[in-house]
Specification:
heterodimer; A: 210 residues; mainly alpha; two-stranded antiparallel ribbon; 2 strands; 2% strand; B: 156 residues; 0% strand; elongated
Chain lengths: 210, 156
């Protein structure tokens, strides 16, 4: 097992001895955290495929907020906001009463979908920065069940009981679903992007994939 | 065949009034279609055959999405032509009986649906519009299936 003092990151100065005053220990701990974070940022996550995935997800999420912002800036019936709302229409009912809003202009998707997409993005991003090995050891079927069950119940219970979902329950159950999916799908999505990238490179330049 | 079954499940969930409300849960019907395709494909495999790969699952998801988009529009047209607004009225009566509190926009949507009659151009347009999200979400469903059913490495 790697010991606390053995952790070294390439390009980083050697860490001083752990022994010393509490202030020293605190300084070392902060340095260690910074080293680990910078190591994660610049050695692992800076891979092209991951950045492409983050960018796609970021753009998708940005579009959700851009629609009401465009409606505020250019008018509710403007071409830009209409295009953005139409773009997200096939994936969501877009009911105003079930959507977050900015200055009276609804988001491009409902509360539940907003929570799903944002938590998916943060789940994918968080996996790059924090060790989630323990979570990944859970059998995927359990992740899927735990993530989707609250959302399914929130959607189905109003039809069979007197339960009425609130904005909070829609958001929380959606966020849980999105986060669970991010645990399941992150690696697959990175592999797909990597595959598409290598295939395009092969086609364009006739070079071998990585 | 698995793609066909998955696609038909998605199409049914899209086209039948009432059932299509399941897609309000992040296109759950479409995700389920992709997942079902992988499940069926995996069940079809004999122990001697080549193991399921991620690429197979993506292909299955794409085919399922395409089948779903075409089949959903066909089923929708057939249901509307044969039953007219009967299916819609049945769904509304069901909702009334179950005393579900639906948002006000839902009644506007129903009113819009009442006045619509399928046209050839409109159907082609619908296929084109729903092809991309259906394919995207059924691929995601298939990838969920892959992550659930993929062969595990034995513990060291």
């Amino acid at each position: 097992m790697t010991k606390w003092n053995d952790i070294k990151i390439a390009g980083q100065p050697d860490l001083p001895d752990r022994s010393g005053s509490i202030v020293d220990k605190f300084t070392i701990t902060i340095k260690l955290i910074l080293c680990k974070l910078s190591g994660t940022l610049f050695q692992r996550s800076m891979k092209k495929d991951i950045i492409i995935l983050y960018s796609i997800l970021f753009l998708w999420n940005a579009g959700i907020i851009a629609a009401p912002v465009a409606a505020i800036l250019t008018g509710a019936q403007s071409l830009v906001s209409e295009i953005l709302y139409s773009f997200y229409h096939p994936v969501c009912h877009q009911f105003a009463s079930h959507s977050f809003s900015i200055a009276g202009n609804k988001f491009a998707v409902c509360e539940r979908c907003t929570a799903i997409y944002f938590s998916f993005f943060f789940g994918v991003a968080a996996a790059g920065f924090f060790p989630m090995n323990r979570l990944r050891q859970i059998p995927p079927i359990w992740i899927l069940m735990c993530a989707s069950l609250p959302m399914m119940l929130d959607g189905v219970l109003p039809w069979v009981t007197v339960y009425e979902p609130e904005a909070l329950s829609r958001t929380a159950s959606g966020a849980l679903f999105g986060f669970g999916l991010s645990l399941l799908l992150r690696q697959s999505l990175i592999e797909i992007i990597s595959y598409i990238g290598s295939t395009s490179r092969k086609r364009l330049y006739g070079i071998k994939s990585r | 065949m698995p793609s066909l079954y998955g696609g038909l499940l998605i199409a049914t969930l899209w086209a039948i009034p009432g059932l299509n409300l399941i897609n309000c849960l992040c296109c759950a019907g479409v995700l389920m279609g992709g997942f079902l395709a992988v499940l069926l494909y995996q069940k079809d495999q004999s122990p001697e055959s080549i193991q399921l790969t991620q690429r197979d699952c993506i292909d299955l998801g794409i085919y399922t999405g395409i089948v779903a988009s075409v089949a959903a529009v066909i089923i929708q047209v057939v249901v509307t032509m044969v039953f007219g607004d009967v299916a819609l009225e049945m769904m509304l009566r069901l909702i009334e009986r179950m005393q579900v509190d639906l948002p006000p926009e839902f009644s506007e949507m129903v009113e819009q649906a009442r006045g619509q009659h399928p046209t050839f151009i409109g159907s082609i347009f619908s296929i084109m519009v729903y092809l991309i999200p259906n394919t995207l979400f059924s691929v995601l469903g298939a990838l969920i299936g892959w992550n659930v059913f993929k062969p595990r490495n034995p513990a060291p």
